[in-house]
Here is the input.
Amino acid sequence: MSEATAQLLRQRFSVERLGTYQAAVGGDLDQAVALYEWNATVSGAFWITLGHVEVLIRNAMHQQLTDWSTRVYREPRWYLDPGRVLDERRHQQIAKAREQATRDSRQETPGRVVAELTFGFWPFLLTRTYDRSLWPHLRDAWPSRRLRRDVHGPLADLHELRNRIGHHEPIFNRPLKELHARALDLACWTCPATGAWIGSRCQVLNVLQTRPWTVRATPAPPQRRGQHRPARR
Here is the structure.
């Protein structure tokens, strides 16, 4: 890469953005651009896997909540909250999802509503707030996991990773191998066969083998419960 091109990218992508990568490679601009490109590549690989895991998880939770609401309240549309279990923020998110699901005069269906709920909606249903109200009805989505926090922790970490990728932020300094393992663990806990399918198509480990050199290879720990930023789509 020519020096002129590297300087142009530094100007167009901003000094602040590329500065993070320059610091990671000891100040060399060419290597910073190479790391920036690799960060985009590994983000893309993760994005595909996270998308599969998100759909699998939300559909599994949706099915458990549907069965519970139908059995207890004779109302399959659990998101209408017939038992008054959900907090106001969840009601707002559901109202927005219902509005988006019916735009352009489309008929509302549970599947469309669930598809419009953001990734951040689902980990919150696994917080301590719903330990007694929802977890007893959600736990069967993960037959091998009996503790709520065993599922919530990894799912919250993946939500944070998805937010960083969605906002084009650096993830090269995150524990990517561990996060990859958490994504596939969650998928296999939910459905072993589907988890195996997701894992067989995931390219994250292949991309990790091409990781450029950095000055400090110590990854930042994933943010845990209570440390997350406000949920973003």
In short: The radius of gyration is 20 Å. The chain has eleven helices and no strands.
